[in-house]
Amino acid sequence: MLDSIYIAMSGLQGYSKGLRVIANNTANINTPGFKSSSLQFGDLFYSNNGAPNNNFGQVGHGLSYGSTALNFKQGELRQTGNSLDLAVDGQGLFTLKDAEGKLHYTRAGQFEFNSDGILVNRSDGFKVMGQDSDGNMTEISLSGKRTSEGKQTSEIKFSGSLLTTNTTQNVTGVKVMDKAGGEHTLGIKFTNTNATTAGSWAVEVSEGTTVIGTGQIIFSNGQIVPANSKVQMNYTPAGLTAMPLSFDFSANVTATASSSLSLLAFASQNGYGPGALAGASFDALGTLSLSYSNGQTVQGSRLSLAQFESLDSVAARGNNEFDAVNPADWHTGVAGKSNFGSVKSGMVEISNVDLSQEFSDLIIMQRGYQGSSQIISTANEMLQELFSMKGK
């Protein structure tokens, strides 16, 4: 009967441990990147009370429990609206580096740029690692990328039609940018010179009343002649050096007698002023994309992802992070390759805890605990009965 009490005690200990695992899973049902775990149970050794046949008269000695096993099934990906909240749709984990240079891994991609412009984990400030073009691990930084330099205009394009029934035609509001980011408005006067050269128009570019330069474009059967479709000249803004300009009429420009078509107008130019950093996000391949107030975008570093070969090689360390137990079983790479998966910006992976399964396991643990407790009570009553019999 004492053996029965010891066996039942092993059950109480095992089911208490199992209850603790279930409690931890349930408590973390809303923890981003959390991976549930389950307790491994096993039976203890057996004895045959000295019987000659090992398969005869065997008696068990209770319940044993081992380590917990992590469940790395992917959790639901949930929208957050924060472009620096990231999730991996696949097997990859984000790579973090602590202040001592040790690597940790997480599925909870809740990141931000710190005051030094380095991408870090919001919860503990660990650096989020990326990879350079040579595959070397590096930090992801905004150094030198907080502003976008301006670009002076070099090409201006037009669309529409010149009316051959007109002697002259004007295009106003032609915007160009200088290298300092200043905007200038030019005007262009087109003069029909068909009487001198068939299909030709004289082009005169001016800023206010100052003529910048002149040129000529030629049409044949209403279509621009490629060799005479551009006008080149130098424009010198006040206080700056000369900048070459190309006025391009090679596409979407015609000469016609029909007034029902749209008149020739300024379409676009390739210059822009300096801009400040307006936003940062990551694409599906984990590449940093920076957008600026001048409409420009720049590509930065690529996120470094990791994956492991066996669950025996990973251990939970808390704070939604994992450590490599056997680094040889871990591999690094980038999104879009092998089984690392793709990166989802503005999303976070929530816990993979299955609450219905946890409640089901909870009932089983409760029944096991109650049964073990009942065995102890029964064995105790039998011992009490034995002692009372001996007293008589």
UniProtKB/TrEMBL annotation:
It comes from Undibacterium flavidum. Residues 345-387 form the Flagellar basal-body/hook protein C-terminal domain. Coiled coil: none annotated. Residues 5-35 form the Flagellar basal body rod protein N-terminal domain. SUPFAM superfamilies: Flagellar hook protein flgE. Keywords: Bacterial flagellum, Cell projection, Cilium, Flagellum. The basal body constitutes a major portion of the flagellar organelle and consists of five rings (E,L,P,S, and M) mounted on a central rod. The rod consists of about 26 subunits of FlgG in the distal portion, and FlgB, FlgC and FlgF are thought to build up the proximal portion of the rod with about 6 subunits each. Residues 87-130 form the Flagellar hook protein FlgE/F/G-like D1 domain. Belongs to the flagella basal body rod proteins family. This is Flagellar basal-body rod protein FlgF. Gene3D superfamilies: Flagellar hook protein FlgE. It is found in: Bacterial flagellum basal body. InterPro entries: Falgellar_hook_FlgE_sf (IPR037058), Flag_bb_rod_N (IPR001444), Flagellar_FlgE/F/G (IPR020013), Flg_bb/hook_C_dom (IPR010930), FlgE/F/G-like (IPR037925), FlgF (IPR012836), LlgE_F_G-like_D1 (IPR053967). Pfam families: Flg_bb_rod, Flg_bbr_C, LlgE_F_G_D1.
